Amino acid sequence: MSLPEDLLELAAATAREAGRMLVDKRPAGGPDVVQTKSSPTDVVTQMDRAAEALIIERIRAARPDDAFLGEEGGEQGGEHGGGSGVRWVIDPIDGTVNYLYDLPDWAVSIAAEVDGVAVAGAVEMPRRGESYTAFRGGGALLHTASGTRELRVTERVPLSRALVATGFGYDAGRRAAQARVLTGVLPAVRDIRRGGSCCVDLCSLAAGRLDAYYERGVQAWDIAAGALIVQEAGGRVEGLHGAAPGPELTIAAGPGTFEALHDLLAPLDPLRG
Ligand code: IPD
Ligand code: CA
Ligand code: CA
From the CB of 95, is ligand 1 less than 6 Å away? Predict the structure, then answer.
């Protein structure tokens, strides 16, 4: 049996171990870029690979029949979970460019899906000393050295007072389109934040430190854990016109703010480019 609570315990312990390893083993001169992906600035370091290998090894040792979707290693064991129906969705470092530059906002993100639905999510931010967890129906929690608190999104914040996070892809053409959409958003909101890690943005939203988030181009591993954490903190995470969140567009915010941001974005043609 795969209870969300048990899956969460494994996700959180594994994310914590990977986060510690990423801090302890980060080379003094910075990690090496071992590969570039969609563009010369879309980098993979030896540490992204080492963290994903550690995560899969630990989870596989505990649950040999599960499947995996990792950013670096791709699909292993089938889209709908292995023999167990459980699939782990892993971003070993979300915010690799921050990690490369030794900026603190990067995270390890691990979600567990049962029959394609995320039921547990852990986001570990070692440089902030923060661990975010949620399981479906169980609320969202922030754990720090000074204790644990339940998370709640902000609600019904007028756009003119909303602090909105977004992100940009690695492809130059995509970025030009994202900049065009941003020219329609920036004058309408309190301000924009571009933190450099999608799952950190989603957790900050869940903690009430941001009022909204949107981005085109995010993948399952970027959002799987963070979206569950936002939902369990009372927020909405969707695409345009009720579509599922994903690469086309992901919008996240508390009730009221979500609808306002959605309606601001829709006429800006955010799926173009
Ligand atoms: C990236 C970060 C960034 C977002 C990009 C993602 P990575 O993930 O989440 O904030 O804007 O869309 O690709 O490459 O650091 O794992
Ligand atoms: Ca990512
Ligand atoms: Ca990554």
Answer: yes
